Amino acid sequence: MKKTLWGVLALSVLAAAAPFAALLLPAPRPLPEPTAAPAEDAVPLPTSQPLPTAPPAGAADAGKALTLYDAAAGEEITVSVAEFLIGAAASELPPDWPDDAIRAQMVASHSYALSLGEEPFQVNSALCAGWTSAGVLRARWGEDFSRRYARLQELAREVADALLCYDGAPAAACYHSISAGHTEASQNVWLTALPYLQGVESPWDANVADYEVSVTYSLPQMTAMLQSLGLTPEGEPAGWFGAPQWDDAGYVAQMEVCGTAFTGTRLRSAFSLRSASFTVAYGEGQFTLTTRGYGHGVGLSQYGAKAMAEGGAGWQEILTYYFPGCTVVQGA
C-alpha cells in the first residue's frame, strides 16, 4: 500500500481501453501517507500510488538493484531485489498471510517500482511505508524475526525474477487494502486511464471485518473542515450535503457540498476518510460518514488476494485477475 500522485507527461492520447492516457497529473509528488506500522493482525495500511511520469521503454531487468527514496533517511538508497521484496511485503501485509498472497504482493511491488523508470520508489522505512529494512523488522518482530524473515526470504527467492507486464513493459501494478466490492478505474483517482486498471469485481472484500467503518464529526468540526474547502456553511446542516453521484465501482464520483461540487477523492482527503466510497448522514447535532473499503481502490485488493489465496488461487492467477490484460513474465 504507498507511493505518490502519478502524472503521464509525454504519452499519446487514449481512451480507457488504450495503453496510456496523455492527461497531466498534479505535481509535486507527495511522499506516502505518514501512518504508523500496523499491528500484525491489522488491516494493511492504505498506500498512495501515482502513475509513473513516463512508462518504461520495453522490458526491464528484473534482477537489477532498486533505487528508493527513503524519507526516514532523507536520501536515496539502493537495495537488492531480495531486500526490496522482503521489505515491501513486510510493510504491506501481516506476516501470517498465505504464501501466494505474499508472492502476489512482492511481484506487484517489484513491477510497480520498475514501472517508475528512472524515478526512485518513495518509501519511509521507519514507518514501514512502502518498504522497510531488516533492522526495523528485527525491532518490530523481536524473537519472531529469524523465523519470519527466513520465510520471506524463501518466498522472495521464488519470485525474484518475476514481473507483471503489459505490452512487454512492467505494469504499474498498484495496490490497496480493501476495495468497495469492485476495484476502481485509475482515471477516477489519478486522471490517467490504463487499460489494465479499469476495475474488476472483488466480492471477497465485503467479508472483511473493517469493510464498513463509520466516523462521526460534531457540527463545529464539520464546519471547520468545510471552511478549509473554502465553503461558508449556511442554513440547516442536514442540507449541507447533496446526494452522491456514484461511479461504476461504487465510489463517490461527485457530491455537492454547500452548493459546490467536489470529487469523492477530494472529499475523502478533506474528511480523512478510509476511502472515497462513503455516505453522509446528519442527526442529533453530528455528522456520520460511513465508508466502505480502505485505500484508493485501484489495482490489487490485498484482502481480495488473501481470500483468493485461501481459496486455492496461485499468485499468478491473483495478479492476472486484478490486472486484466497483463501477463506474468518469469525467468526471462
Task: Give a quick precis of the structure.
By secondary structure, this protein is an alpha+beta fold. The chain folds into 2 domains: 66-207 and 296-330, no CATH class; 212-292, no CATH class.
Poorly predicted parts: 1-43
What share of residues are in beta strands?
15-25%
Biggest sheet character: 3 strands, mixed
Portion of residues within helices: 25-40%
Count of individual helical segments: 9
Q: Give the overall form.
A: globular
Lateral arrangement of strands in the main beta sheet: 2-1-3
Oligomeric state as shown = single chain
Number of domains: 2
Order of H and E elements: EEHHEHHEEEHEHEEEHEEEHHE
* Rg from alpha-carbon coordinates: 20 Å
Distance between the termini: 27 Å
Give an overview of the whole structure:
This protein has 332 residues and is an alpha+beta fold. It has two domains: 177 residues, no CATH class; 81 residues, no CATH class. Helices cover 27% and strands 18% of the residues. The protein has nine helices and 14 strands. It has a three-stranded mixed β-sheet. A three-stranded antiparallel β-sheet has the order 5-4-14. α2 packs across α4. It is globular and about 65 Å long. The two termini are 27 Å apart. The N terminus is likely disordered.
Note the main attributes of this structure.
single chain; 332 residues; alpha+beta; 2 domains; three-stranded mixed sheet; 9 helices; 27% helix
Write the topology of this structure:
Layout lengths: L65 E5 L4 E5 L1 H12 L6 H17 L5 E3 L10 H8 L3 H15 L2 E5 L2 E2 L4 E2 L10 H4 L21 E7 H10 L16 E2 L5 E6 L2 E4 H7 L7 E6 L2 E7 L7 E2 H9 L4 H8 L4 E4 L2
Parallel strand pairs: 1-3, 6-13
Antiparallel strand pairs: 1-2, 4-5, 4-14, 7-12, 8-9, 9-10, 11-12
